[in-house]
Amino acid sequence: MRATYMYGPGDVRVIDVPDPIIQNPTDAVVRVVRSCICGSDLHPYHSMPPTPEGSSMGHEFVGIVEDIGSDVHTVRKGDFVIAPFAWSDGTCDFCREGLQTSCRHGGFWNAGDVHGGQAEAVRVPLADGTLVPVPVAEDSPLIPSLLTLSDVYGTGYHAAVKGRVGPDTSVTVIGDGAVGLLAVLSAKQLGAQHIILMGRHKDRTDLGREFGATDIVAERGEEGIAAVRELTRGDGTHVVIEAVGHMPAYQQAIGVVRPGGVISRVGVPQYSDAPIGFGTLFGPNITLTGGPAPARAYIDTLLPGVLDGSVHPGKVFDREIDLDTVPEGYRAMDDREALKILVRA
Amino acid sequence: MRATYMYGPGDVRVIDVPDPIIQNPTDAVVRVVRSCICGSDLHPYHSMPPTPEGSSMGHEFVGIVEDIGSDVHTVRKGDFVIAPFAWSDGTCDFCREGLQTSCRHGGFWNAGDVHGGQAEAVRVPLADGTLVPVPVAEDSPLIPSLLTLSDVYGTGYHAAVKGRVGPDTSVTVIGDGAVGLLAVLSAKQLGAQHIILMGRHKDRTDLGREFGATDIVAERGEEGIAAVRELTRGDGTHVVIEAVGHMPAYQQAIGVVRPGGVISRVGVPQYSDAPIGFGTLFGPNITLTGGPAPARAYIDTLLPGVLDGSVHPGKVFDREIDLDTVPEGYRAMDDREALKILVRA
C-alpha cells in the first residue's frame, strides 16, 4: 500500500510499504477513507532531524474496518469508524477519568510499530478502546466534520474545557489554524459571550467569526496585546487559548490574560523553558493548563452535534487532495495557501 | 517608634522611624500586638541588592486600631484586627471575586509609602477593605493562630484550593516550612485522605503529621521523587503543593505529579524561566497554578475554625522574641533553628 513518510525538514514522500495486518488479538485494520494534514505535522516539517528510514505520518483518520483480531468486540468488519489521535485501552484508570492520552497501555500513532493515518490503511492497536463506530456511509457529506473529531475539534474543545470557559468568561484564542478556529467554536458552545480571535488570515478569521468570534485582532506581539487589552478595558480575558505552540504565542498569552485567569495551551510547545516567575504567571495568579487532548473522550460529547448538523467543524478543510499529492499538501499548508487539507486515501 | 529595615543580604536592623499617622481618610493606624518573620522574608535576606536607605520589613501582623481616618467605617479605635498580607479596597471586581491580591486600588506592604509589620505600628491604607476585626483581647491565647491568617494559613489554604484538593485527590506537599505545614492542614480540612509531606526536619514533619500528613519523605531530588512514586504505585499524586520557591522544588514537583494533575505553587518563585514543555507539563496534561494568596478572602472561611479551637495553625510558631531581637530572629530562621518566629512589638 501507499503511505506517507517524512525524512527531514521539507522532505515528505509517499512510498510503498507492506499492507498492515493484525498482529495482536486486540488489533483492527482500518482502510482509510479520509485522513488529513495537521498543523502539528508542520513542526517536524520545519525541524525534524534528518533520518534515512523516515518517520510515518498522520494521526487523524476515518475509515472502514477491514479486519479485526479475535479479541475485538466493539467494532465489526465494515464499520465506519473514527480514530482519535491517541490509541488507548478504554479500561484503565486514566481512560476512565477521560485522560486517554495517558492510557496505561496506549500510545500515539507513528511510534514504535504503530504507523500513521496518511496512508491507505492502518493497524489500530486496542481497537475496542480506540475506535468509535458511526452509522454513516463512506460517502457521507458529514465525513469532513467527523474527521475533525480525530483531533482538531477535540483539541479545540479540550482547550476550552481545561480553560474552564463558560458563560461568564471572556476568551482570547491565539492562532487561526484549524485548532484555533475550533477552539472558538468550542468556546461558543460552552457559552462564552466574548471571544477574541487573534489571527491575520482574513479567510480564516472570517470562518472564526462564523464559528462565534466576536472580535478579530490581526496584530501580533506588543501591538496585538495592546489591541486585546483595549477590547477588555485594559484587563485581558479570563481565558486565553494558545493554539500555536511557538514562544511568541506563549508570550502573547501572558500579555492578554486577566489576573486570576487561565492560559490553556493546545499548540504543541516548540520550547522547553519559558517564563513562569513572579512577573508572568505567579504574581497575578495565572493558571497554565492544557496538553494533548484526550480526543477519544470528547467524541462522545461532540459527535451528536456533528450528526444532527448543529455544528459544521469540517468547514476548516479548504482543500482535498489524493494521497499521492500529500507532499504538495504539506507545502501548501506550510505556505498558508491552505488552512487544512483533506486527504483521499 | 521602632521598625525593622533590611539593607542587604543578612543585614537586618531595627531602627527609629517617625510614628505612622493617618494620611488619607481611608487609613487606619494599627498598633502592632504581634508580627512575625516569614519564610519569604528569607529570600531578600539571601539576595537583596544592597541599598543605603533600606527596605521596611514584615507583612503579617495583628494589633489594635489606634486611629482611623474620617472615611473608615468597619473598624473602630480599640478593635483587635488581623491585617492580611495585601491591602485592598474590598469593593472592586477583583476583590469581589476573591482575588484581593489583584485589587485595582490595593497593594502590598513595604512598597511606596506603605511600611511593614515588623514594627511598633503600621499605617493601613483602605482600612475598611483590608482589616478584619476579631472580638478577642490582645492577650488571648488564640493570637498566634489568628496571626497565621495574615499569611501562612491563608497561603497554605490557597495552595490547596487552587490545586483543587478534595476527598478523592492524593496530595504531596513540598516544603516543611510554615506554609507547607499549613498546606497539609488545609488539604486535610478539604478532605484529602493521602497527604505526603516532603521535608527533612523531624520536629517540623512531626507537626505535619499532627496536621494530617499520612507519609513523610525526607529525601530530596531524584531520591525524593522515587520515594513519592513508591508510595503512589509509581504514579505521583493528583496535587502537588510547592511551598518553597526554589527551582529544585519545582523540579521535584514535576517529578511527583500524576498525569492530569495539578502543581500549585505558593512558594515565591526565585526563578523566572522554568521547564514547561512537552516532557514536563504539556505531554502529561499537568496544570500549573498558584500565586500570592488572597489571604483576606480566606479569613472569612478559616477564622471560625480558629475561634472555636478546632484547628491550631499557631503551632507553627516555635519561638517568640522582642522587636529589637528581630535581626537575631532572621538568623535563627535562616539557620533552621526556628520554624517561625513570633515578634512582640
UniProtKB/TrEMBL annotation, chains A, B:
The keyword Mitochondrion does not apply. InterPro entries: ADH-like_C (IPR013149), ADH-like_N (IPR013154), ADH_Zn_CS (IPR002328), GroES-like_sf (IPR011032), NAD(P)-bd_dom_sf (IPR036291). Pfam families: ADH_N (PF08240), ADH_zinc_N (PF00107). Gene3D superfamilies: Medium-chain alcohol dehydrogenases, catalytic domain, NAD(P)-binding Rossmann-like Domain. It comes from the Bacteria. Residues 178-290 form the Alcohol dehydrogenase-like C-terminal domain. Transmembrane segments: none annotated. Residues 25-135 form the Alcohol dehydrogenase-like N-terminal domain. Belongs to the zinc-containing alcohol dehydrogenase family. PANTHER family: DEHYDROGENASE, ZINC-CONTAINING, PUTATIVE (AFU_ORTHOLOGUE AFUA_2G02810)-RELATED, ZINC-TYPE ALCOHOL DEHYDROGENASE-LIKE. This is Zinc-dependent alcohol dehydrogenase family protein. The lineage of its organism: Bacteria, Bacillati, Actinomycetota, Actinomycetes, Mycobacteriales.
